[in-house]
Structures
1.
Amino acid sequence: MTDKFDVAIIGGGVVGCAIARALSRFQLDVVVLERDVDVARGTSGKNSGVAHTGINVPTGSLKAKLNVHGAAMFESLCRELDVPYKQVGKLIVALDESQVPDLESMQARGLANGVPVLDIIDADEIKRLEPNITGYAAVHAPTAAITCPYSLTIALAESAAENGVEVMLESPVTAISGEPGDFTLTTPKGAINAALIINSAGLASGEVARMAGVERWRIFPCRGEYVILDKSVGDMITRMVYPVPPKGGAGLGIHITPTVDGNILLGPSTDYIEDPEDVDTTVDVRKQLLKEASEFLPTINPRDVITAYSGVRPKLTSASEGGFGDFVIEEVPERPGIMHLVGIESPGLTAAPAIAEMVAGWVTDKLSPAVRPDFKEGAHTAKRFREQSREVQTSLVDNDPDYGRVICRCELVTRREILSAIENRLGARSINSIKYRSRSMMGRCQGGFCGPRIVDLLIEEGVPFDELNLKGDGSWMFFDTSKGLREGHDSRTGEAVIER
Amino acid sequence: MSETTTIVCVVCPVSCAVQVEFEGNGIIRTDHNQCKLALEYVNDELFDPRRTLTTSLAVDGGAKPLVSVKTDHGIPKHRVMEAMQSLSGLHVQAPVHIGDVIVPNLIGTGADLVATRNVAAA
Amino acid sequence: MIKMRSADVAVIGGGPAGMAAAAAAKEAGAGSVILIERDEELGGVLNQCIHDGFGTKVFKEALTGPEYAAIYADKVRDAEVETRLEATVLELTEDRVLTVLSEEGMETIEAGAVVLAMGCRERPRGAIGIPGSRPAGVYTAGAVQNYMNLRNLAVGRRVVILGSGDIGLIMARRLTLEGAEVACVAEILPYPSGLARNVVQCLEDFNIPLFLNTTVAEIHGAKRVEGVTLASVSGMDVIPGTERFVPCDTLMLSVGLIPENELSRQANVSIDRVTAGPVVDDAFQTSNPGVFACGNVLQVHDIVDYATMEAEIAGRSAAAYVADGTLPEAEIQIKVGDGLRYVLPSHVSGLDAVNFTMRVTKPDQNRAIVFSSGGKVLRRLKQQALSPASMARVRLGKARFSDTREILVEVGD
Ligand SMILES: Cc1cc2nc3c(=O)[nH]c(=O)nc-3n(C[C@H](O)[C@H](O)[C@H](O)COP(=O)(O)OP(=O)(O)OC[C@H]3O[C@@H](n4cnc5c(N)ncnc54)[C@H](O)[C@@H]3O)c2cc1C
Ligand SMILES: Cc1cc2nc3c(=O)[nH]c(=O)nc-3n(C[C@H](O)[C@H](O)[C@H](O)COP(=O)(O)OP(=O)(O)OC[C@H]3O[C@@H](n4cnc5c(N)ncnc54)[C@H](O)[C@@H]3O)c2cc1C
Ligand code: SF4
């Protein structure tokens, strides 16, 4: 198979998907090539989910510009795509007087970067805003917001697909050849032909650049682990609570972040690692997170941890160098036609809409496409039942009985939402794809109850049980039927046992 | 000469640690059992260990893919796996009712395999 | 449109506890009793417990789970309880208004009394924090049981079990019978957390090793589980150098059950920190009058018969509450003494005999459960063996409650 596209985007993270959606407003043939079984499986699915205001980035940097601009675009983008967005505000808390100068310099930098409002508040005001938090003083950033990073990435990809973008999953790019106007990208699913290439491969962007003969970037993976606390303690805080960032550290320090679903995140840690795909979680860090977060929030109880996860930052500076690395968004003169996005670490999620606008501008300058007249802006997926008022819920069920069957009880997800997730536009059918689209299996029982019911629906929708997988090839869910284990054949179909 | 031993009664979750005094092939007395169901079990466990086999069978044309079944008496413990093997490949036609005998005299043990659940026809 | 209706007694959850409570409420004279179950059939967890051992107390016979459930489903039908299947209670207010969602729409039910019988859920991987990667092949034992016994799906071929809870032990046997290989059971405590009965007939019968003081230190495999690292522990910490790799394609967790009390909290019912279930009196009334609790939502039971017995009292109490508008005060306080994790109920009226249920903190032998009041022993029940895995049940006759305000229960000599 050889397909000819105007633009090939490598990487289905929030950046690649935001670019794809921005380009789908034009009459262009665009393909997104993602190596994983679904979009948002990289860093974009595993972060704090914060739309940052722009306090923590050096004035004048590309990061600062795109952060502040992205933050300003964020709310309307989320509303368009029906993605959760809550402007809960943020406190950066000084534990004693010695940290007050840090607060002042952060405030000054933030205002210089264009953050609309930033106040410094005292201990009493901290108590008034967040009764469970103890601190000496704090920067209060009321415009800081939280979102659901994988929902946003998925919604961007599905909206792009709705508007004609082809999203190819399980399609890693392994080689790049050719010239601007006629590049060839090699994937296991065949060669892809494209006039322009966008390298938004996140942690692998350095490697993808090397495929195109550009050797200049080395990425240092730096892991951040989190634990998630149960919703029942979700009301311990209403705002994000950050420490004063550790000097010369690789991150913002361990913070306490409410999620749009009512849980609380503790994290992330900062550990430079060898393998960018090593998203393990560890006992030591789990203990460290609980300990450090307890300094601000003493009511944290280890019993309330429901699960843990980690994400990896694509750093352009090594552990020993420390310090700051700006976003790289560059077309290299000696190898034109390819836009490289390298080192898109925090606040890459926040900046994604602005990055997309910038990169789409590069494409339209080169190709001068016409605007797509029938661009469909909104989402086309089922309503998130749990977020609706009783009245809206009632009318949803009255019109569609599938909203009346609760499949996931912890997160209150209905059959309609699961079916909508199964029928997604990208054709992603892994169990995790259903999980991230519907939020089922993410609650306090982690799928113990709803897992079997979702498996039923997938089988009803035509996925054979022996093809069911958690996250793509090799991550099979069922070895055989119960009866088939002993009988040596599948008792449903009478066929021979599947060889694994 | 009588002997004494302790056998955990497995008939129900109480798991009484039953003390048994026995001689030859007869029990003289038992202690620490909460109920009489232990007597038959302990006797069997000493002289002829038996287990109730519970498992499931595939159902054809049913509203459910499986029907659960049990042996109506204990079968010799060492023949449990053999019994499972003998059921391999067996399919039951729906409808099935609790108590229906699915396999009489399972592998010659004298115990019948009976359904423990109702499965309606699809 | 939200439909509105009322009922004398509403029972939430159609497992063995809910079925027994509903039938008992109706038999005790409640006019309208509604039983709400979110699954497509009654029976709760019993439907997937196809092993035998249910009913030895009530029926003097070892029935299988589905058989035991069927008996109570018949009782519910014969008592003319209104049963709503595939209906989920979304909300319960303090003044006993239920919001129920089903394919027929949204409905509110104003209930004269409510019986909570929602059962419990399994503790998942995250809650116990096993480090390592997150491949496919990590399942809770209850999920494996559900797939295997109800859906004809086998999750793997070579299984390591973490935790010696009863469901895990039962599934060790079940998997072995069906032709899978159970490599071992690892338990972090120095004693099994499941019943002796299940250690004998599920592990020993099949020569499946049980490693005590052992945990899973790491899960291996990127896509599907490829093995686990087992390690010995001292207390809860891994002893360095004891790590060993065990290949397997499945890790099954049997690390405990947690009562399902989200609705109880909404209804402002006080929850006990130890049982994680509601605080109740001897009528099984919670801190919110007119709201009752029984079965696994109250405390994790190992014997369904006892869940049934307490549910029948809860159902009768609910009917009495509707008839009389109130129940006798339960002013005698029950204090938990040495050697016990909890005792239920926590306060009693003294008007009737009470069957107390409790769990001990650690295994022990030749001790006694002692009830006393102001230093005077009310009852001493010799126990040859005590185990945290088995719930102890001790009856105290009505006469013992005269002239007491407080009773201490402890493990003594
Ligand atoms: C711990 C942590 C916390 C963070 N918190 C925040 C925050 O709160 N707010 C914020 O704004 N930002 C935050 N960030 C930053 C943000 O998550 C990232 O900047 C953003 O997700 C980067 O998106 P991306 O699309 O560039 O990369 P990714 O999401 O990594 O996407 C890259 C994609 O490319 C695919 N790919 C790689 N190689 C190939 C190939 N050869 N062929 C095809 N596909 C390929 C990958 O599978 C992946 O899906 C955080 C990051 C971390 C690690
Ligand atoms: C693996 C295993 C093995 C066991 N083995 C034995 C044994 O051998 N012998 C023995 O005597 N006992 C045994 N038991 C114990 C016995 O099964 C339990 O004590 C008993 O099932 C508890 O009953 P329940 O009604 O409280 O809970 P459940 O059976 O869990 O029922 C609760 C019901 O409530 C419903 N529900 C919950 N929330 C809602 C809502 N919001 N709206 C509507 N419906 C709702 C659920 O769907 C469920 O059907 C075993 C238990 C397990 C798990
Ligand atoms: S003796 Fe009775 S109570 Fe004790 S375990 Fe056996 S059957 Fe159960």
2.
Amino acid sequence: MTASADAPTVATARKPATGFWRRALRHRSFVLGGLLSLLVIGAALLSLVWTPWSPYDIDVASKLKPPTAAHWLGTDVLGRDIASLLLVGARSTIAVGIIAVGIGLTFGVCLGLLAAARKGWTEELIMRMSDFTFAFPAVLSAIMLAAVAGPGMLTSITAIGIFQIPTFVRVTRGSASAIWAREFVLAARASGKGTFLITIEHVLPNILSILIVQATIQFALAILAEAGLSYLGLGTQPPQPSWGRMLNDAQTLLFQSPMLAVYPGAAIAVAVLGLNLLGDGLRDLLDPRLARER
Amino acid sequence: MATSSNAPLIEVQNLGVRLNTSRGPAQAVRGVSLALKRGETLGLVGESGCGKSVTALALMGLLPDSAVLTGSIKLDGRELIGLTDGEYCKLRGNRISMIFQEPMTALNPMHTIGRQVAEPLRRHTGCSAADARREAIALLDRVGLPDAAKRVDAYPHQFSGGQRQRVTIAMALACQPDVLIADEPTTALDVTIQGQILDLIADLVEERGMSMILISHDLGVIAENVQRMMVMYGGTVVENGETDKVFSRMGHPYTQGLFRARPKLGARKGTRLKTIAGTVPELADLPSGCTFADRCPLVEDRCRAAPPPVIDVGGGHGVRCVRTDVSMAAAVGAPA
Ligand SMILES: Nc1ncnc2c1ncn2[C@@H]1O[C@H](COP(=O)(O)OP(=O)(O)OP(=O)(O)O)[C@@H](O)[C@H]1O
Ligand SMILES: [Mg+2]
């Protein structure tokens, strides 16, 4: 028997990730999204070591100044430097995004994987519970949590995180169930693997790209939700700067100095747009079918 | 293992499988019995949908939780029906293995082939990663994967269908199982490679003294590769016996139909392929008598009244038909 007779031999071993960066740099929305996200991260990092002014310095004498050489973007109603507020605000925005998405991702993915692996009443219970949670908007859970624990950044992050769990449960359960139906899972079971190992070694790696993409989208939603909650006074508390709080403060002076609302609004838009573009790009780049046709 | 060579390694008695289908629960397999000694080979043949895969998955304990199994499956005298999943996991891939039909989808696209072959070894024998890797390379080499040492770290999509099937064979054989179930291992491959893969499986079965259940819908594959065969229809075994005996004198009208319907090389142009009239009945509404009654040319009233018994037509050759006197007079088969 001539073993090598069957079929064209294909190239040598190569990681599927090879060429990822090359393709990534040619992907327009990935690059643009990446740049915008880096801008926000850069602002947060910069604020750790340097801000033009202290964002806590109140100087009522020079309030509501238009942009000058000293205050690039002007000052707010308490005379704080808006550029500095924006830089420091990026920090809480990122913290909210990471922690809230972390909560949603951790619980959501675990529950989703469990539902897909166990089927039956376990799946039924998890899905009904997540439907129930989903029915409560983040604002409502935040109000309820605030009533118990008092308003604050932690409350709003927890509320947003809890609100994100059902989305991750659904996405995980759906894509994991599809993987469970694949023949290589049957083959893995036939070679003696139990449910847990199959979930970790076969299901999870195959849905990872979907989860990463979903996480970027949820990150953007978390930023929006935090801005909303801060705007309602349920999120970040003064004097801690946050983009949502800045919008809140600008609200009363909307006609007098509209730019106060425009700056934080634009910052939120940049972060959300950047993450959405990044997510779109990742979805394309991580799809193995698209990756293969080089 | 402490079995004498005469006791069957795997023994199935009166196996029944009830599945939840879209049209409600249905009996996908009924009254299947078989016994295989160490080193014996058995073929399972029948049209699509007759329950071959369900039978195989039942032996592997891989049917969905909602499936209801009746009867008995014994491996080395130990009852498998009712084992917990954890207990079954210790047997699968270790004492009883399976090769699947679709090599293109039977491997995880995210893992290297070396890892996928080495994994059952590490799990069942607890050997070190380095040993498992070395063994995996040796196995891949044995199944005829060219350049095995260089290509262990390649991913499935870098191989052709035939090569992938070699990899899945290596995966199934990693722990030297006693029983190998091959469910249409060559159906998805083109004809020249089919022969190579079947030869490889036959060599390995012989070399390691495994018992094999080979599933196919191709009578030719069965004729060349197994000692004994069972013909399935509608979830029941309609004919069984030694391959030579069955082929020399086919007893069941269904087996005869399959035999007549096989494509022949060198047939005159324009001759149409003979087919069996009608289609396989839906599981949910199988007839109460003989499952083949609606398509059978020899059908009588009593065929529809009750399921026919198995009739021994000589030398352990059993036929589940009440009209063997007429059917066998036609002398369908390929006398040696
Ligand atoms: N998980 C399942 N749930 C419900 N019905 C099933 C399931 N698996 C198989 N069946 C049904 O059981 C019957 C037998 O299927 P099986 O897969 O055993 O056929 P087969 O003989 O292997 O056919 P093929 O040659 O196409 O592989 C079919 O009617 C099929 O629809
Ligand atoms: Mg099948």
